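Form P-L/3: holo structure prediction, ligand 2-acetamido-2-deoxy-beta-D-glucopyranose.
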Amino acid sequence: MRAFLRWPGQLLAVVVLALQPAGTLEGQCRVPGVTHGQLKPAQNFTYGSTATLECDAGYVPVGATTTLRCLSSGRWYPWVPACVPGQCPSPPAVDHADRNPQREFPVGTTVTYFCRTGYTLVPEVSPVTTCLKNFTWSVIPKICEKTRCPSPAIQHGREISPQKAEYTFGHQVDFQCDAGYTLRGSQRIQCWSDGTWRPPVPYCDKVCGPPPKIANGQHSGLRTEQFPYGLEVKYSCAEGLSLIGDDSIYCTSDDGVNLAWSGAAPECRVVRCPRPSVERGRMTPQRFTFPYGAAVQFSCDEGFVLRGDAESRCQADGTWQPPLPTCQPVLCPQPHMVNGRLKSTLDSKMWYQTNATVTFECLKGYHFSDNGDVSSEDSRTATCLPDGNWTPLPKCKQDRDTDVCEEIHYIGAVFECGVPIAELKTLLEIQKLFLEIKKLKVELENLNKSVL
Ligand SMILES: *[C@@H]1O[C@H](CO)[C@@H](O)[C@H](O)[C@H]1NC(C)=O
Ligand SMILES: *[C@@H]1O[C@H](CO)[C@@H](O)[C@H](O)[C@H]1NC(C)=O
Ligand SMILES: CC(=O)N[C@H]1CO[C@H](CO)[C@@H](O)[C@@H]1O
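OUTPUT (holo model):
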């Protein structure tokens, strides 16, 4: 009010009356308007009386003092305070959760938590807390729990690590399959932070039982514990014994479901084939023992031919298959001669042995000839060779063949000389006359002989 003192008195009174709310009396402090708060008691503030400032919920007084005194000057001391929005302290830590960095938390602020790696938000729980009007944080229940992996149970197998009621992030599980099954995949898996198993949960696959054992032999799977689909085992026999059958079998499936060995195991037996003997024949390779499976090839001595198969193999029953061949002597077929025949009908056979010799003679009116010359011999021979052929057979030629041949040679030579056709015709006519004269001479001779 001191500020008004310099004003004219009447004006001052008007102003004071105007400033004082209706019903206020002289000697009292004015009721101050306080936003977001009020004074208690609410009226009759005589000089010297005190009042207490009460802020609305969520508001706090500015300054430390909330007790006010009404001074005789009509003012309040301290000066009429204000209520400002309050703040919450830092939100509480939540297990396995973090929040965004934030420093100011006025009333009404919300803070959202999120779960750390390996933890998952509990279903149907809100991860949000709010700064309440009484400057506390709304209650936050447990919001993060360890991430769970689904139960890793497998068929035809079990966990060998201690079994748990539930499997959370970081858990390791080891597996083993039942007898008759093999593990496909990783034997050890771990629950990952995203709730999956890594590596993926394995499975147990059927296996074949141990392969059959055989007397006097063994298989390659003796140190193998499991025989999965596709595995092959090889059999071998004790020294000196022969393996009869397929030397290996493998684990397979006929119906796509059950597994079984591909066939029966082989047998180990003593198998000795007799030394193969082929008369007049030879054997390769040269060997002294003839066990199961041994193969030999045969060939015959000269003059003999192989009848049967050239190769034979020792069988499981001790026999040779195909049967051993024989060596038969090579034979020459009956020789056929043009214009000639065998001298003795006793010599006539269908087949002739090697070294057999036959004697020929020419038919009547023919003679043996060599290179066009007529030979005076009246018999010649041929010999059956070891390869089934005859030595070259002799040739018989008609007696007068020589004259005709000479003529043909002559005509041929004339042709080759390039004699013109007209001249050639003349020559041939002379030739014809010559031959006719010759023919007449012969006839005349014969006539003379008959006359004589
Ligand atoms: C704050 O307010 C809430 C709800 O209005 C109440 O549940 C809680 O108990 C209060 N806290 C204190 C410390 O008064
Ligand atoms: C044929 O004769 C030759 C020579 O005399 C002889 O070496 C060979 O052994 C004979 N062959 C036969 C099958 O008699
Ligand atoms: C509310 C209250 O107490 N009002 C009182 C204020 O003072 C006057 C005069 O002393 C009283 O008449 C009111 O009743």
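COMMENT: The CA atoms of residues 160 and 174 lie 5 Å apart.
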